[in-house]
């Protein structure tokens, strides 16, 4: 997928029964690359970087859960990139790794000629974040095409997640494509207008109703995300 100054490549990676999506952003002019939430399959990620003849300069982390950071240390050892995570997430969970640098809400990072805006969107974790490019939004576990992240772990907050969803709805253009960390039916890359219409959590305009629905009990883990 190509948009303006960059290419965005989607990798579906599997660890046991858990399926994740991680992403490779490549600046078209410089061939500098960023990997978002590297997990599960080192060979797939390293192989994609080699196939694209891209130089890994950044690792971008939406949050600190293991299924989104599993391969940070291994990639950092091989490529020595900068590793970026929100200051709130780093401080709250005491996350650390080689090359780690914090970012704050609204901070802009550069990858060659490509600009990446960091949006701190708490709720799923204390400092969860999304990354906004010219035509794409990488959302980790904040929002999915079909739903939003769980709010059951330390530092999570369904009320904060409601605020984050409302912010995303108001801030991100409806033609921007959404790329989450997991999928539960619809493939990544749906435009934001699709979520406005079909993502149930986008329909709430009252925080108490959103929180009650998000925190309802589900026995089936795969359904808890929606």
How would you describe this structure in keywords?
single chain, 226 residues, alpha/beta, Metallo-beta-lactamase, Chain A, seven-stranded mixed β-sheet, six-stranded mixed β-sheet, 8 helices, 13 strands, 30% strand, globular
Protein model, in words:
The protein has helices spanning 42-51, 66-69, 72-79, 87-93, 158-171, 192-198, 207-214, 221-224; strands spanning 2-3, 6-15, 18-27, 32-36, 55-60, 82-86, 100-103, 108-111, 114-120, 129-132, 136-140, 177-180, 190-191. The chain has one domain (2-217): 4-Layer Sandwich (Metallo-beta-lactamase, Chain A). The chain is an alpha/beta fold and 226 residues long. 27% of the residues lie in helices and 30% in strands. Helix 5 (158-171) crosses helix 7 (207-214). A 7-stranded mixed sheet has the order 1-2-3-4-5-6-7. It has a 6-stranded mixed sheet with strand order 8-9-10-11-12-13. It contains 8 helices and 13 strands. The longest helix has 14 residues, at 158-171.
